[in-house]
Specification:
The protein has helices spanning 24-28, 46-59, 68-82, 124-127, 155-166, 210-221, 233-237, 270-289, and strands spanning 4-7, 10-12, 31-39, 42-43, 87-94, 110-117, 130-134, 171-175, 181-184, 188-193, 196-200, 226-229, 241-246, 250-257, 260-261. By secondary structure, it is α+β, with helices and mostly antiparallel strands. The chain has two domains: 4-117, D-amino Acid Aminotransferase, Chain A, domain 1, CATH 3.30.470; 124-285, D-amino Acid Aminotransferase, Chain A, domain 2 (Alpha-Beta Barrel), CATH 3.20.10. Strands 7, 8, 9, 10, 11, 12, 13, 14 and 15 form a nine-stranded mixed beta sheet that branches. A hairpin with a 2-residue loop joins strand 1 (4-7) and strand 2 (10-12). Bound molecules: N-(5'-phosphopyridoxyl)-D-alanine. Residues 35, 157, 183, 186-188, 207, 209-212, 245-248 line the site of N-(5'-phosphopyridoxyl)-D-alanine (PDD).
Amino acid sequence: MSITVNINGEILSQENAKISVFDRGFLFGDSIYDVTYSQSNSFVFLDEHLDRLWNSARLIGMEIQLPREVLVQRILDTAKASGLDEVYARIIVTRGESDLNISTDQYQQNVVIYIKPNIKYDPALYTRGLHLSLVSRARNDRRSLDPNAKSGNYLNNILALQEARNSGADDAVMTNTNGEVAEGTTFNIWMVKDGKVLTPHHDSGLLRGVTRAKVIDICGSNDVVLEERTITTQELIDADEVFITSATKGIMPVYKLDSKIYAENSDQRPITEALRKSYIELIQEHINKGTYSY
Ligand code: PDD
């Protein structure tokens, strides 16, 4: 697979894309990032993802040096250079290169954009669904590293995924340090109970997903009762339907949580399927506007 990379404004092939071993993203995970994608040569919810990138920077005390409109142009130019009409885009801003000490003086930040073909998930993940595991690894406490900052340090999530995979599941759901449901390794978590849609409140310690915000809006405009609140692990186990959201996966059903089986086909999860349909329509409407086409 070939990945087109933009490093500080220069478009490079995968082989020639190199940054310094003194970069603080490499040294300390001292960076932030965001992920979005395009469809029909047009980026999906780019404004929302860039708003979050700036918010992640704020949460780690970093002021992004690059003007936002320059970053947008680089994303569009790199996507165009890739020759692909459906791309996955990852934007990383690191605090820059420094000596081997952790102090956050003013450095020249590195801005790296990766463009590759958008991920094609196995269709069975949408028809049958995902198998998740509630892992023992807790999500970072908000007072240590706020999960709402999409930082380049994903070791917490990597360890959770490792634990889930070791138990035979596809991916992990983490609780916060109080044992309440927080989120997945790279996605937000949702449940349906007695016709109501529930998702953990952001106070539970999670990344406020762009997809999550869109699904909340969809519930509002379709008169679906939605509650953002604390969710216990027992409530999640006892749910009627469970699904996850992320930019790259959209709405993906969960058929199994550890040994609990919810539903193994789409007929058995009507609310998840209705939301999925509305979400796909919303994306199509957004793409048709072509705000960030290349
Ligand atoms: N992950 N929670 C975490 C920890 C995430 O990493 C992500 C996104 C989400 C969902 O956010 P959104 O709906 O904005 O994609 C929630 C991206 C896809 C990633 O890191 O690849």
